[in-house]
Amino acid sequence: MRKLLDFILGRKYYVIIVGERGSDRYDMASQIHTSKESAHQHRLRIESTRTYMYITTVSFRSHHQF
User: Rounded distance, CA 7 to CA 40, Å?
Assistant: First the structure.
């Protein structure tokens, strides 16, 4: 059933949106994650830096495998 849903809807991926501290610039983080847990671990690493601040995690579906 899962493979059928992945074929019809596409696989689910997660990407983190970050902002540069001290500016109004927002970017997508450099990694696309295949699991929510992986995205959460990356979020924790981002929050420990002084350069970037975490904004949000966005999920999307794609038929292309990343």
Answer: 26
The token pair that represents 23 in the structure block? 């500016």
Query: What are the angstrom distances between the C-alpha of 64 and each of 11, 14, 23, 35, 45?
Result: 8, 14, 33, 16, 27
**Amino acid making up residue 22:** G
Per-residue pLDDT tens for 15-33? 999 999 999 999 999 899 9
* 62/24 Cα distance (integer angstroms): 29
User: What is the Cα Rg of the chain in Å?
Assistant: 14
Task: Please state, in angstroms and rounded to a whole number, the distance separating the CA atoms of residues 9 and 62.
Answer: 8
pTM of the model: 0.81
Q: How many residues does the chain have?
A: 66
Could you tell me which of 15, 3, 11 has the C-alpha nearest to residue 65? 11
